[in-house]
Amino acid sequence: MGVFRPGSIAERADRRGEGRKKKQSTWAVAAFRSAVSQGLSPSEFWNLTPYLTRHAIVALADYQATGAWLTANFTRAKKMPELKQILSKQTPDKAEVSKSLKAAMMQIGKRK
Fold this sequence. Notes:
0% strand; mainly alpha
């Protein structure tokens, strides 16, 4: 009847459920690691939905692959192409831009 009980401290902790590591959600950890390795910051990851995170990861991977491809091609090029040919030629539709700006301003007005 002493103060000491048989068994080690670890065995008693296991019987009580103490000392066990909580099982983490493996898909969330894998998604987090994948997103951060592609260049998303941890705060960006936690602010995005899983759907948007998946698309952000794909977009970042495409961006990095495109950069690597361009770098490899430019190192092999005998004559450097003009910058105008390389840059994106997409110009925003003026009507669409004005419509989205107007909608944004209306939302700001509704908040106040």
